[in-house]
Every structure is written in structure tokens, then in C-alpha cells.
Design a protein that fits this description.
- The chain is an alpha/beta fold.
- The chain is built from 24 helices and ten strands.
- Helix 24 links the parallel strand 9 and strand 10.
- The radius of gyration is 27 Å and the shape is globular.
- About 1% of the residues have low confidence.
- This is Disease resistance protein RPP13 isoform X1.
- InterPro entries: Apaf_helical, Disease_R_plants, NB-ARC, P-loop_NTPase, RX-like_CC, Rx_N, WH-like_DNA-bd_sf, WHD_DRP.
Length: 538
């Protein structure tokens, strides 16, 4: 996950050198060397994306690149401050100071060259470490497997709170008002229960009786069109050896012909990319007989791309439904002892209505002593326990983060600096993004401040559409006034940002503890919370 933080430092530093090269006529050689090294480092980061957690050497090298980039960024910032001062000095003093600046830049170039030499060694043996450009991370594949397991876990305890959602969706799919082929979507953040709801709909007796045939296919991030077609065809027809010899286009025609004259229902679960629909839609005939497709996704863009019908945004569980699910997972059919009810409700409520959190927490507590003392140790520390085993919530949420384009990763992580449970002023947030330099500059274009804010608001809209940020309130013109982030996602941002030295969050007690232990803080930014009541302008 280091690529976003490191790439930002490298690219912003390279842009600075490009834009200010006219101020550095005496050190052009060092500047060119530094730009080349930074470009090489950035290429390495793109090639090794997703591999740093799998290979210690790669992770360690990226850490060194990050430190060198930050150091270079600091040195250049100091140098540019001196350049600005020089403009006010006389010619002789400018000349004398330029030699000092050249030495500083030379040191930075030497440091980045040293790191580049290490990268050369990795590149010479990159096949040995499984680092290939464009390769897919096995961590994402493992997270996909874990996500499917979590879905089964939720299914086993019969997730609660979806009865009304199921009825609403089944009514919509079977009302018969429109005979043309329609695509309906369910969207929401990871772990919210989209797949579980889709399964309830798929298995509903009204659906089975209303449609002639049904099919379910799991798409996932790294899908193959051919596999989707074959999986779907298995639900509708027997597959002969000849079928497997056909091309993808021939498979689409075969499936299309098989579905002609039938009222069919197809669920495409866990769709991440809009192009999935473009590649599959030719297989679905529109016979004006009321056939339906149901898509589940974390991405609003997927829903709007495949259909003009507004997507169904799955809500979080309320407190009562959260408690019911929590009890089913922890006690497995038994009643909760009266002495644990108050504490249990507090723990269930701390999951903020996210079924994934409730199921994972319930699974942990089911194997712990059911005592007041044991459960009390979880109060205020739920996220820490959920993230203790990275093969649960953390890696499942990381699927959404890894899918983000680089321009959005830092903006998303930065939301973690805000205190828990606050409504964040969009005006304040976007101004901070611009001030931090997260909105990239375009060479040769001088944008006005309000144009940068406009771009930042578009970034926020995209994070909302990806179910990572929630709308808290809107302005009178319909724009987003305040937003919020789920506690689990906030803690994910804090965890990643601490690893990448982007920022650290400290409460008053944490700071006192750190001071007493002489802990060295290496983060680029610090957020101190708990000293006073949070207040912001909107």
C-alpha cells in the first residue's frame, strides 16, 4: 500500500524541480540526475504494487525509498525557501549562497542514487521475487477468498434486518410494470451484506416461481469474461465438450440463443468495474418478457453504467438488528446471560451497523470466556481486535482501497485524521486536500483556488460513489455539506497511514505514554485528539 504515499512524495518533488529549474542554473546536472532517479523509483513502485506485503525485501526497500523521498522533499523545500530569500539579496550575496544550494542538491541526488542502486539489484532479480509489471497481488486473491468465507459465516447465522429490504427488492423485480430487460443494482460498502441480501432474493420462492430460469455468478475484482459466461451457462444448460472449444464471442451467442423466449433472472455478484456489463450484455436477449438482472457492487459507477434505474443503497443495521446478529454469532442459539446484556449491546453498537464487523467480533467473543472482565477489555478497542488478525476485516476493506486510483488514495487516507463520529465539513476537508498538495498541478496551467476546490469536490464525490465516504448532510442546492466515515474504515485509514508515515493520531493518554517511553514519532503529520471538544466551521 506504500505506492500512493511514496509516489505522491516523488511526483510532487519531481514537479517542483521541473517548475523551478529556471532558478537553479548552476546545479542543472544534479537536478537532472535527481529527476531521473525519481522517475526510476516511481516506475519500480508501479511494478511492485501489491507485492510489498508479500516480500520482506521489497517492503524494506520501499520503506527506504519513502524515507529518501521525504528527506529530499524536506531539503528541496528548505532550498526553495532560501531561493525566495535570495531574490531580495544583492548580486554578490546571491552568488555566494548559490554554492551552498548546489551542495545541498548534490547530497539529495547522491542519496537517491544510493537507493536507486539498491533498486537495480532488485530489478536484476525481480523474477526471483515474483515482481512483474502489472502482476496481480496474491493478497487480493486471498482477501477475495476470505470475503467469500465471511459471506458464508453471515449466511450460517441467518443475518438479520434484511426482511424489509428483501421484500422491497423482490417486489421491484416481479411487479411486471415494465416488460423490457432491466438491470437493478444493490450498492454499499464492503461487509454491509449486499451478497447476503442478493442470496435471499435469489432463493426467494416468489423469484423462483416468477422466472423460468435463474443463474448466479460471482464476478470479483479479477474476473475473466470466459469464466463468467461458462459459470452462467452451467445454470441454464448442460455443457458439452464442444462448448469449451468456442471463443468468448461464440459463447455469448450460444447463451443468447439459449435464453431466447425465456423469462430469466441473473445475479452478478461483486462487480467492481463498469466494463463488465459492456462485455456481458450481448449475451442477454431482450424479449420484452420481464427478464431481470441484479448486480451487487461497492461502486456506484457500476450501477449507473449498466442501468438508468437508481441503485438500491443498502442501509446499515439498526441497534436492535445489530444486537440480534451479535447474539446469534456469539451464543449460537443460546440466550445471552443477563449480566452481559448491557455490555454486549454496547459492543454490538460499537460496530456501527456493519454486519462484517459484528460477525467477526462475534466470532472472536464466541471463543473467549463469557465474563464481564473479558468483554470489558473489548470496550473502546473493538477495531484493534478486529484488525489484530489481518486476514479478516483489514484485508477485506483493503480490496476497496487497492482498487482506488492513486489520486484518490491519499485523499481517502487523510480523512482518518478527523475525530471519530464527527460530521466533517466538506469545505474544510477539500481546502485541506488542496493545501496538502493532493490535487495535482498541471504543467503550464495556473488554476484558480476555486478550481482546485472544484476538483477536490469531484474527488470526494467519487469516494462517496465508491461507498468509502458517507453523506451526512446536504446544502440547499443539493451539494454535500458534511460527510462522515465509518469507524472501521477510519481505523483502516489510521493503520495504513501509520505504516506509511503519512500521519499518526494521538489521544492525550497516548501522547503521555509515548513521552514516558521516549517513543520517536516519524510520521509526516500528527493529529492530537481528546484534548478539547472538536469544532469546525461549515
Amino acid at each position: 500500500m506504500s505506492d500512493a504515499v511514496v509516489s505522491f512524495a516523488l511526483e510532487s518533488l519531481r514537479d517542483l524541480l521541473i517548475h523551478e529549474v529556471n532558478l537553479l542554473p548552476r546545479v542543472k546536472e544534479q537536478v537532472d540526475l535527481l529527476k531521473d532517479d525519481l522517475g526510476f523509483m516511481n516506475s519500480f513502485l508501479k511494478d511492485s504494487e501489491g507485492k510489498q506485503n508479500e516480500h520482506y525485501m521489497v517492503k524494506e526497500l520501499i520503506s527506504q525509498i519513502r524515507d529518501a523521498a521525504f528527506q529530499a522533499e524536506d531539503v528541496i523545500s528548505i532550498y526553495m525557501a532560501h531561493v525566495i530569500k535570495q531574490r531580495r539579496r544583492n548580486l554578490l550575496r546571491k552568488l555566494l549562497h548559490s554554492f551552498g544550494h548546489a551542495a545541498v542538491l548534490h547530497d539529495v541526488a547522491s542519496e537517491t542514487t544510493r537507493i536507486k542502486n539498491k533498486i537495480d539489484n532488485i530489478y536484476a532479480n525481480k523474477s526471483r521475487f515474483g515482481i512483474e509489471a502489472g502482476s496481480h497481488s496474491h493478497l487480493d486473491e486471498e482477501a477475495e477468498r476470505l470475503l467469500e468465507q465471511r459471506r458464508r459465516d453471515v449466511e450460517e447465522v441467518d443475518v438479520v434486518g434484511l426482511a424489509n429490504d428483501t421484500t422491497t427488492m423482490v417486489d421491484q423485480l416481479t411487479d411486471g410494470r415494465s416488460l423490457g430487460l432491466e438491470v437493478t443494482s444493490i450498492i454499499g460498502m464492503g461487509g454491509l451484506g449486499k451478497t447476503t441480501l442478493a442470496r435471499k432474493i435469489y432463493k426467494n420462492s416468489r423469484i423462483k416461481n416468477h422466472f423460468d430460469c435463474c443463474a448466479w455468478v460471482n464476478v470479483s475484482q479479477e474476473y475473466k469474461t470466459r469464466r463468467l459466461l461458462l459459470d452462467m451457462m452451467k445454470c441454464f444448460m448442460s455443457l458439452s465438450d464442444e462448448i469449451f472449444k468456442k471463443s468468448d464471442e461464440e459463447l455469448k451467442h450460444t447463451l443468447h440463443d439459449n435464453l431466447k423466449g425465456k423469462k430469466y433472472f441473473v445475479v452478478m455478484d461483486d462487480v467492481w468495474k463498469p466494463e463488465v456489463w459492456d462485455q456481458m450484455k450481448a449475451a442477454f436477449p431482450d424479449e420484452s418478457n420481464g427478464s431481470r438482472l441484479l448486480i451487487t457492487s461497492r461502486e456506484k459507477d457500476v450501477a449507473t453504467h449498466s442501468s438508468s434505474t437508481p441503485p438500491y443503497s443498502l442501509p446499515f443495521l439498526d441497534d436492535d438488528a445489530s444486537w440480534e446478529l451479535f447474539c446469534k454469532k456469539v451464543f449460537r442459539g443460546e440466550k445471552c446471560p443477563s449480566y452481559l446484556k448491557s455490555l454486549g449491546r454496547q459492543l454490538a453498537k460499537s460496530c456501527k451497523g456493519l454486519p462484517l464487523s459484528i460477525v467477526v467480533l462475534g466470532g472472536i467473543l464466541a471463543n473467549k470466556d463469557k465474563t464481564h472482565q473479558m468483554w470489558s477489555s473489548f470496550v473502546g478497542n473493538v477495531s484493534r481486535f478486529l484488525f489484530e488478525d489481518r486476514n479478516t476485516c483489514f484485508d477485506i476493506l483493503a480490496l476497496s482501497y487497492n482498487q482506488l486510483p492513486r489520486r484518490l488514495k491519499l485523499c481517502f487516507l487523510y480523512v482518518g485524521v478527523f475525530p471519530e463520529d464527527v460530521e466533517i465539513s466538506v469545505r474544510h476537508l477539500t481546502q485541506l486536500w488542496v493545501a496538502e498538495g493532493f490535487i495535482p498541478v498541471q504543467k503550464g496551467i495556473n488554476r484558480k483556488p476555486e478550481e482546485d476546490i472544484g476538483i477536490a469536490e469531484l474527488y470526494l464525490a467519487e469516494l462517496i460513489d465508491r461507498s468509502l465516504i458517507q453523506v451526512a448532510s446536504r446544502r440547499s442546492d443539493g451539494g454535500v455539506k458534511t460527510c462522515r466515515i465509518h469507524d472501521l474504515l477510519r481505523d483502516f485509514c489510521i493503520n495504513v497511514s501509520m505504516e506509511e508515515k503519512l500521519f499518526e493520531v494521538h489521544a492525550d493518554a497516548d501522547l503521555l505514554s509515548s513521552s514516558s517511553n521516549n517513543t520517536t514519532i516519524k510520521a509526516r503529520r500528527l493529529s492530537f485528539q481528546g484534548f478539547c471538544t472538536w469544532k469546525q466551521s461549515t
